[in-house]
Specification:
Elements (H helix, E strand, L loop, with lengths): L5 E5 L3 H12 L3 E5 L10 H4 L3 E2 L16 H6 L5 E3 L4 H14 L3 H15 L2 H11 L6 E2 L3 E5 L2 H5 L2 H8 L5 E3 L1 H7 L9 E5 L3 E3 L2 H14 L3 E3 L3 E7 L2 E7 L2 E4 L2 E4 L6 H5 L8 E10 L10 E3 L4 E6 L2 E10 L9 H13 L12 E10 L6 E4 L6 E5 L5 H16 L18
Parallel strand pairs: 1-2, 1-14, 2-10, 4-18, 6-16, 14-21
Antiparallel strand pairs: 3-9, 5-9, 6-8, 7-8, 11-12, 12-13, 15-18, 15-19, 16-17, 17-18, 20-21
Protein name: FAD-dependent oxidoreductase
GO cellular component, one term: cytoplasm
Pfam families: DAO
Length: 421
Amino acid sequence: MATGRHVAIIGAGAVGVISAIEALREGHRVTLIDPGEPGGEQAASYGNAGWLSSHSVIPPAEPGVWKKVPGYLMDPLGPLAIRWSYLPKALPWLIKYLLSGWTEARVEKTAFALRDLLRDAPLLHKKLAEEAGVPELIERNGVMHVFASRGNFDNDLGWRLRKKVGVEWLELSADEMRQREPDLHPRYTFGVVVEEAGRCRDPGAYVAALAQHALAIGAKLMRAKATGLKLDGNKLVAVLTETGEIPCDAAVVAAGARSKQLTASVGDPLPLETERGYHVMIENPEAGPRSSMMASDAKMVVNWTDRGLRAAGTVEIAGLEATPNWKRAEILRNHLFSMFPKLPKDIPASRIKTWFGHRPSMPDGRPCIGYARASRDIVYAFGHGHVGLVGSARTGRLVAQLLSGKQPEIPLAPFAPNRFL
């Protein structure tokens, strides 16, 4: 019988369900609150690239990125696009975003912090997958980055900083790449393999399995949309939902891009934004990579999944409510055909699937992990941006440690929610 507190975890995505598993391990009672199906198509956990890239330590904003903002506004189909109609709402976040990457020193600080969060992530996920009975969904076999030239790699600040924080890689010549990836277009002449990284073969199925495991070991699932948090002084008494109150002793806000309203309800107006992302997937493709890879020119990840060959990437700043721009998914498809010329150009439309979702992003590329200002009964765990799946394993452990009042296993100052308050 659990002897800890009754913890309500808002959000049954990757961060939420792993937080539930780890909180149960600590002896707490857990209720997961989410209106949707864990691992369902509505969730960012379903549609991400599937990379477990423990080397993804570079935030989106780097020095000089401000010079590209006019281009982002003018090109609705670029790797990062900002809808004019949403610019007034996005501007405060965008300014903080640009300032966070203004100097190399600021980017380096984030790289060291994210390295702590992501280190050993493929191993942590492998253990979780084994516990949940789906060990085959997590593979620790490295990922490849491909470049048009060695110069593109040498001039990249990100790789200099990765070396500084301890990431190692294997460099490949054009011939060595071709031996590994015979279907890859010959315009790519240099590559690196980060052997510590891994991948998930079906992110939606993985999150669904983790949720089922959490339920099997004692969690409860409430199908409801949380709207706020109810305090009595500095003590949490309930989570407010559209269907009523859920009494609890502690709460975890892990609602992804929809966490902003919840933190505001207890006096923390945090600068959370949605980076809208897309993927395209070809079922039963005739060609493609043997390993998971990222193309530096297309800014997209290509990954084999059990459902098909998935290409994911690009960022669109347009808020939670705007309709999808499916031309952005078409661009991913075109990049995929360009990378792998052996893919037939006449693949039936029925075999090409597209998806759109919301990455929850803080301006500096670091998630919020820590207590609310109003009460230590409330733990925040959201805003992971591009590292939600890979970062979820350690985040869940940190959440459980915070709920139990234990010393967190990594320094949490860089992720403190109040850094923007």
